[in-house]
Amino acid sequence: MNINHHQTKRDRSYFEWSDNMQIICKGNGDIAMTESELVDFFGVTWKKLNYRLQLLIKTSHLHPEERDAGELEVFVNEQLKGYAPLYPLSIIIALSFHSWTAWKLICSESTFAGKYTARQTS
């Protein structure tokens, strides 16, 4: 199975991690990413990403044009098989905030749990 996404990457920009763990912007045009690119970029599961995307779209105060960046044609064996939604920079930023906040909460909970355990064993 041969899946081609490279055709539309020339028409848009997207984010990736460099070898130095820095965010780099690749491509030309407006920033927009597919769900599979977002999963790779944030290092989360499809389930977690889809939950966050649905939550953002339902509860955010973004204008309709800030929620959608069009669609990407998906080809399998050089035949059009469907379309994948593209998410604009506003959604990527909102997802980044949610990811950072969740990570910060996990770290805080771990720190508090560690302090509590240390007090109980002392």
TrEMBL record:
This is Uncharacterized protein. It comes from Prevotella jejuni.
